Amino acid sequence: MPLPEIVTPEFQTNLPSTGETLFYRPFLVKEEKMLLMAQEGQDRKEITNSVVTVLQNCIKTPVEIKKLPLFDVEWLFLQLRSKSVGEVINLNLRHNKEGCQHLNKIELPIEKIKVNQTEGHSDILMINEEAGLGVKLGYPTLELTEKFDIENATSEDIFDLILMCIENVFDKEKVYNDFTMEELSDFVGELPKEFVDKFMKFFNSMPKVGYTLEYECEKCKEKITHKMNGLMDFFL
Question: Is the pLDDT of residue 234 over 90?
Answer without folding.
Answer: no
